[in-house]
Amino acid sequence: MLDDALLFAVDRGVATIRLNRPDVGNALDAAVAHRLAAAVAAIERDDSVRVVVLGATGRHFCAGGDIGEFLTVRDRLADAIGDELAALNPVLVRLRALPVPIVTALNGPVAGGGIGLALCGDLVVAAESARFRSGYSAIGLSPDAGTSFLLVRALGATRAKELMFLNRSLSAADALAWGLVNRVVPDDRLDAEVDSLVAALVALPAGSLAAVKALVAQAADGAYEGVLASERRFMIQNAAGADAREGIAAFIDRRAPAFGGAPGTTVSA
Questions:
Q1: If we measure between CA atoms, which residue out of 119, 209, 130, 143 comes closest to residue 174?
Q2: Considering the entire predicted model, what is its pTM?
């Protein structure tokens, strides 16, 4: 266990990373990024680890960025988000580069950068209560945590843009039909399904799985780190604008936002 906000343990070759901020929907912040980095570093040093399980406590998998924190920084929003992503992005690269299979267990809704974190998993198992919503366009921000890259890779450009443009909510069943997750199970069967999948992976040859993971990444990933850097630049740009302030305030006030409509200064990707 690293601390209460992120739980970490290794047991019989299975490393479990569990977000543990249920009071804020397991939202991501710089502190969580640093704790995740420590967990990944521990896995990198431990040759006994054969599988990683990525999950969360409470009713949500991950709500993405911490809206409450965004409100506290207000005029420093762009700098704060930039600093957070500077801490998070290298961790995500290292997490995805682990040579062992990662199984994501989606215990509930996932939004924003939580989608990028969830899709770091090589295999994704979702409870029926899981929902996907990008959320960025609703609060005047743009994708982060590798979400744009991984959604395009999983869904193709057309469906990825539908989710991110229109802030569409995707049910677990729809996510399965679209190929965003591997399996959907009743909520009370999630842990058992993940345990079964993990047992099957642990029984397979580690070298073979590592080779498959490396080859698939080489074939499919392209410029993941470049996309992360571009996401950070666009997020800083949007966080500095009036639409982000209005979107976050409207979210807190439970009202429809009144966006200005101007895209602002263009930042080269």
A1: 130
A2: 0.89
Total domain count for the chain? 1
Would 269 be classed as within a structural domain?
no
- Write out the residue range of the structural domain in which residue 139 sits: 6-188+205-253
Which of 149-158, 182-191, 195-204, 241-250 has the weakest average pLDDT? 241-250
What digits encode the pLDDT tens for the residues 249-266?
Answer: 888 999 988 877 555 444
In the prediction, which pLDDT does 267 show? 47
Confidence of residue 90 (pLDDT cuts 50, 70, 90): very high
Beta-carbon contacts of 101 under 8 Å, excluding residues fewer than 6 positions away, are 51, 52, 122, 123, 201, 209, 213
CA distances, 246 to each of 218, 235, 249 (Å): 41, 15, 5
* 214 assigned to some structural domain: yes
